[in-house]
From TrEMBL:
This is GNAT family N-acetyltransferase. PANTHER family: GNAT-FAMILY ACETYLTRANSFERASE (PTHR43415:SF3), SPERMIDINE N(1)-ACETYLTRANSFERASE (PTHR43415). InterPro entries: Acyl_CoA_acyltransferase, GNAT_dom. Pfam families: Acetyltransf_3. Residues 9-174 form the N-acetyltransferase domain.
């Protein structure tokens, strides 16, 4: 049985009702550094994205899930991206939207569920993530789940007039 349900949260597929939530997240300039975005998204484009979000990860090379509490309130999103079937790997991205909902274990629980799903049901050999050198909370989160820092990409992202370093972390399914 595939279970994406944890003690405090569960992961679910995107729904048409997520339009406002995703629009708010994608257009929050304070989050653009995390997603490497520099332009806003229209509701029209997000609606089109939602209409195609049901497609299989093997086809679109991405899986985006909503992190939801048991009262069905969307707290954030977690993604598998750059899904590479041949090499059995994918990147992981995670966001808990509201500052008040961070540091409460929701991200940790979501990441645990996604790791289990990735290794058990998708048969992946490895997961990786890219984290800004300054993002101590994300570094702590991914390290707590067994990810190891395997490299530093110097001057990797141009943010607010300056170049920032980015780490790459990796978790192998042994």
């Amino acid at each position: 049985m595939i279970t994406l349900k944890g003690k405090h949260i569960y992961l679910r597929a995107l729904e048409p009702e997520d339009l406002e939530f995703i629009h708010t997240v994608e257009n929050d300039e304070s989050l653009w550094e995390l997603s490497n975005t520099i332009t806003p998204y229209s509701k029209f484009l997000i609606k089109q994205y939602l209409e195609h979000s049901h497609k299989d990860i093997f086809e679109v090379k991405q899986l985006r899930l909503v992190i939801s509490n048991h009262d069905d309130i969307a707290l954030g999103m977690i993604d598998l991206f750059d899904f590479d079937f041949k090499n059995s790997r994918a990147g992981v991205g995670i966001l808990v939207k509201e500052t008040k909902d961070r540091q409460l274990g929701y991200g940790k629980e979501a990441l645990q569920l996604l790791i289990n799903y990735s290794f058990t049901h998708l048969g992946l050999h490895q997961l990786y993530c890219n984290i800004s050198e300054e993002n101590e909370a994300s570094i702590k989160l991914f390290r707590s789940q067994g990810f190891n820092k395997i490299g530093l990409k110097e001057d990797w992202n141009y943010v607010d007039g300056t170049y920032k370093n980015e780490y790459i972390f990796q978790l192998l399914n042994k």
